[in-house]
Amino acid sequence: MSALLCLVAGAVCFYVIVYYGVFRGVGCSSPVKLKGKTAIVTGSNTGIGKATALDLAKRGARVILACRNKEKAEAAAFDIRRESGNNQVVFMQLDLASLKSVRSFAETFLKTEPRLDLLINNAGVMGPGRTEDGFGAAFGVNHLGHFLLTNLLLERLQQCGPSRVVTVAALLHRFGNIDFPLLASKKDLVSGQSTWHDFQAYCCSKLCNVLFTRELANRLEGTSVTCYSLHPGVIYTELCRGLSLWLQLLMMPFAKLFFMNSEGGSQTTLHCALQEGIEPLSGRYFSNCALQQVGAKGRDDALAKKLWEVSERLTRLS
Q1: C-alpha closest to that of 124 among 174, 76, 172, 186
Q2: Which residues does UniProt assign to the signal peptide (predicted)?
Q3: Looking at the DSSP assignment, which residues form a beta bridge with residue 291?
Q4: Is 20 in the active site?
């Protein structure tokens, strides 16, 4: 009996050490209020996007939920308005898998909203399929859609400065690669269709997020707009809905025990959006509410510049 108790006690201690030492993140400590400010959060009908939007609404911001699914987004807007007591939370249609939709969203926003202080590029997908324009889903949604959106809204951000662009990347960017010849021929960064290829494509898209932020900072140097990329932590969200059923079932027990919830996963996003004094760190990468070093490819300025130029052509910005 005593041996069993020791085993249980050991397991509990192991869980506490691993959870609090590895998985549980640090909270955003910024007291900043946002009354009179406007924020866009993509993919904010669920998960860390919704948690981010809720926090911004509680601080008094006008929050635009930029989402694809109208029904889910309007339900999320209702929840956020009720919980925050802030009625300035609205849904605007945005499908990042369609460059036409991105342009339509930007046009509508610029006609109806006089301000933009925060752009949170949060939405992400992991899974098979292609976008409306024929790109691989992860590359098209996670990178190209946000690349175009940011560029179309950049002038408004500059007019309302100081303002910020925050892009949710991932630690998995370290496993990404950018194969430009493959992108030119296949409109994707990986070839093949399998769970492993979907995972690779996601890693590549997250490297694109890091490089996009780096090049954006270089181009915005000397302006009132700063930008940051980040790893939100290990979180089990609807991002995994594209995985096969057996993989989701396999992950679920571990996720319930160790992974952060959506509120925990939003903390580094909020830190990058709100923390005063980090302006000199524009273009850098954060994790656990602190500056972190990115992988070697994520520090390659030539690669970042080339990705930008290719993305301009693919989105018909140039």
Answers
A1: 172
A2: none
A3: 286
A4: no
Q: Are 32 and 57 in contact (CB under 8 A)?
A: no
Taking CA atoms, 75 is separated from 44, 53, 61, 89, 126, in Å, by: 11, 13, 19, 11, 24
Tokens 């807007």, residue located: 77
> How many Å apart are CA 38 and CA 64, to the nearest integer?
8
First vs last C-alpha separation in the chain: 72
Q: What sign does the dihedral 145-141-252-10 (CA atoms) show?
A: negative
Catalytically annotated residue among 202, 228, 236, 285: 202
Q: Where are the domains of the chain?
A: 1-315
Q: Which fold has domain 1-315?
A: Rossmann fold (3.40.50)
pLDDT digits 0-9 by tens, 165-221: 999 999 999 999 999 999 999 999 999 888 899 999 999 999 999 999 999 999 999
